[in-house]
Design goal:
This protein is mainly alpha-helical. The protein has one helix at residues 20-37; strands at residues 46-47, 53-54.
Amino acid sequence: VIDSIQTVYTDILQSAPGSVAQVRESAAQLVRFAKQTGVGLFLVGHVTKEGALAGPRVL
């Protein structure tokens, strides 16, 4: 379980954690790993009180 995917980052990219590129690449790496190993994966993003996604809408 990865809670708050927008806080995860990868050293491959220079951008800040939470940026669109970081979220997209981090999620892609985690999904790739899960598929290669057969491990279950849950990615969690958060929603604000107003119902908007907290962080970029890239997943």
